[in-house]
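retry 2 of 3: previous attempt timed out while embedding pyridoxal-5'-phosphate. Reduced batch size to 1 and resubmitted. Inputs unchanged:
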Amino acid sequence: MCNVQDSHVFENVSKILKAHAHADILITPDVRISADLEIDSVEIFDIVMEIEDIYDISFPVEVASSIDTVRDLVETIGQLTNV
Amino acid sequence: MFDSGMKKNDIFEKFEKLAERYHGVATLGTQPFGMVFDEILSPTRARVGSREVILAGTNNYLGLTFSEACTTAAKAAIDHQGTATTGSRLANGTFREHLELETALKAYFNAASAIVFTTGYQANLAAISALVGRGDHLLIDADSHACIYDGCRLSDAETIRFRHNSPEDLAKRLSRLPDDGARLIVVEGLYSMLGDVAPLAEFVDVASEHGAFLYVDEAHSVGCYGERGRGVAQAQGVLDKVDFLSGTFSKSFASLGGFCVSRHESFEYTRLVSRPYLFTASGSPANIAAARAALATIAGSDELGRRLWDRANQLHSGLRAAGFEPASAPGPIIALPRADETTAVREWNALLEAGVYVNLAVPPATPQAKSLLRLSVSAAHSESEIDQILEVFNALSDLVS
Ligand SMILES: Cc1ncc(COP(=O)(O)O)c(C=O)c1O
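retry 2 succeeded.
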């Protein structure tokens, strides 16, 4: 497993999440997007769309709904861009 | 048995934040999410406590709820068939009137198949979940109604969202998909929150270019758009190219229930596999009769539609003159985005106190996290009622402060 924290994807994702976060906390791989950053489910879907455009991928809604932590998000992007 | 440490397993703990927000809104006046009408006086008027209010948030677009045709038909149905069907159509049998309504819908939409469901919510749940399954793909507009999302969840197909009303974004996402499996695109005709219309003719083209089926939910638009109210697809000249068209009887049809029609005869088999059709009771005789009477009224004349559009144009231009910026072009739904939730709640209360009921819509139920005052127009609104609504909106900033 790659080191999530050092990845380029993590850097990109952090930037996007920071712009949407309602709680001002340091973004690490284990931060929970909804519980810790206080981003609601609808906003998460919008963030996912931004990410889809950057990486030219499509996240199935089922996958997007099961994302909990920043690590989940980064790893999902990794999986979808590798196929 | 339960020590204090059990608190973290409290099943209601997750509601705490929500409860705080819910009760917080009520401190600004009336609870908008628990609105009670003490008496419904007409399609456009109700009594709230001791106050009479003009209703501008009902979805009663054609104002048929008190029409002679609908009320007489519903009462007669109760007298002749009783108050309920007491079962599902497959297990407990079909009342002839349900079939007659389906036949009338087929004729109205020139469809090969029509199925009536117990609500509009269930129509989408039932049709979407039955049409696609594992290995298939659903492509849905990002602003889709909750029942479209729920229909997708109930199917085993993979669901992909595309940008709201963007045929280009849809095409991009379709081209990323693998070749195998069926593809079903789901959009709405008229979006219920912002009142914007879908570019259905362009979606039809994208669907055919990518070998996909097109499903259009016209819950809000049937009765309001197109010749004899046949909806946005008909108005844009593509009704015969839409594969599935769903709708509800709960708005323009002044009843309760939903339907889905299709140009494909094989859609009939949905009845055998669709859980929200199989495992719930069919619509009550009174509801079916009222819907049938409303359909006859709508199919028989464009008169109510014309009245609705006159009032919609009057309200839309009046609101603009009063300094408000509706989210969309004139239509039966007029949404006014507000600066934030508190502003919207304050204004909603001021309107109610001045005798005008509108809908308050806040995130996460709204697109782009907007806080909205949402108005729906009815053919039953008189010109002077719209004027009264506008008078209140003109005075709104004073009323709030
Ligand atoms: C777009 C859309 N589809 C379906 C429905 C569900 O209709 P019904 O009220 O008949 O369940 C609604 C109504 O809320 C809606 O807005």
